[in-house]
Amino acid sequence: MLELLFVIGFFIMLMVTGVSLLGVLAALVVATAVMFLGGLFALMIKLLPWLLLAVAVVWVIKAIKAPKVPQYQRNNRRFY
Protein backbone atom coordinates (compact mmCIF):
# COMPACT_ATOMS: atom_id res chain seq x y z
CA MET A 1 0.00 0.00 0.00
CA LEU A 2 2.84 2.40 0.80
CA GLU A 3 4.42 1.68 -2.56
CA LEU A 4 1.24 2.77 -4.32
CA LEU A 5 1.13 5.99 -2.29
CA PHE A 6 4.79 6.58 -3.14
CA VAL A 7 4.13 6.19 -6.87
CA ILE A 8 1.08 8.47 -6.78
CA GLY A 9 2.94 11.12 -4.78
CA PHE A 10 5.96 10.82 -7.05
CA PHE A 11 3.77 11.27 -10.14
CA ILE A 12 1.95 14.29 -8.69
CA MET A 13 5.15 16.03 -7.54
CA LEU A 14 6.79 15.59 -10.93
CA MET A 15 3.71 16.95 -12.70
CA VAL A 16 3.52 19.93 -10.30
CA THR A 17 7.19 20.82 -10.87
CA GLY A 18 6.63 21.01 -14.61
CA VAL A 19 8.36 17.86 -15.82
CA SER A 20 6.93 16.57 -19.11
CA LEU A 21 4.68 13.53 -19.15
CA LEU A 22 7.38 11.50 -20.93
CA GLY A 23 9.88 12.44 -18.21
CA VAL A 24 7.36 11.50 -15.53
CA LEU A 25 6.76 8.08 -17.12
CA ALA A 26 10.50 7.47 -17.48
CA ALA A 27 11.05 8.44 -13.84
CA LEU A 28 8.21 6.13 -12.76
CA VAL A 29 9.73 3.23 -14.70
CA VAL A 30 13.15 3.80 -13.14
CA ALA A 31 11.69 4.24 -9.64
CA THR A 32 9.62 1.07 -10.05
CA ALA A 33 12.68 -0.91 -11.16
CA VAL A 34 14.75 0.40 -8.23
CA MET A 35 11.98 -0.40 -5.74
CA PHE A 36 11.55 -3.88 -7.26
CA LEU A 37 15.26 -4.67 -6.95
CA GLY A 38 15.35 -3.23 -3.43
CA GLY A 39 12.38 -5.39 -2.44
CA LEU A 40 14.03 -8.51 -3.86
CA PHE A 41 17.22 -7.72 -1.94
CA ALA A 42 15.28 -7.14 1.29
CA LEU A 43 13.37 -10.40 0.79
CA MET A 44 16.62 -12.28 0.20
CA ILE A 45 18.12 -10.87 3.42
CA LYS A 46 14.92 -11.74 5.30
CA LEU A 47 14.89 -15.35 4.04
CA LEU A 48 18.64 -15.95 4.29
CA PRO A 49 18.54 -17.68 7.73
CA TRP A 50 15.84 -20.09 6.51
CA LEU A 51 17.78 -20.84 3.32
CA LEU A 52 20.91 -21.58 5.35
CA LEU A 53 18.88 -23.80 7.68
CA ALA A 54 17.49 -25.74 4.70
CA VAL A 55 20.99 -26.25 3.29
CA ALA A 56 22.25 -27.47 6.67
CA VAL A 57 19.33 -29.92 7.05
CA VAL A 58 19.93 -31.38 3.58
CA TRP A 59 23.65 -31.68 4.33
CA VAL A 60 22.97 -33.53 7.61
CA ILE A 61 20.41 -35.87 6.02
CA LYS A 62 22.82 -36.71 3.19
CA ALA A 63 25.58 -37.38 5.72
CA ILE A 64 23.34 -39.70 7.75
CA LYS A 65 21.89 -41.59 4.79
CA ALA A 66 25.13 -41.91 2.84
CA PRO A 67 25.42 -45.26 1.04
CA LYS A 68 27.65 -47.64 2.93
CA VAL A 69 30.65 -48.51 0.80
CA PRO A 70 31.76 -52.09 1.50
CA GLN A 71 35.20 -52.24 3.01
CA TYR A 72 37.93 -54.01 1.10
CA GLN A 73 38.24 -57.57 2.38
CA ARG A 74 41.52 -59.24 1.59
CA ASN A 75 40.23 -62.75 2.45
CA ASN A 76 37.71 -62.83 -0.40
CA ARG A 77 40.23 -62.08 -3.15
CA ARG A 78 40.72 -64.71 -5.83
CA PHE A 79 44.17 -65.68 -7.00
CA TYR A 80 44.61 -66.63 -10.65
UniProtKB/TrEMBL annotation:
The chain crosses the membrane at residues 7-34, 40-61. Pfam families: Phageshock_PspG (PF09583). Keywords: Membrane, Transmembrane, Transmembrane helix. InterPro entries: Phageshock_PspG (IPR014318). This is Phage shock protein G. It comes from Citrobacter europaeus. The lineage of its organism: Bacteria, Pseudomonadati, Pseudomonadota, Gammaproteobacteria, Enterobacterales.
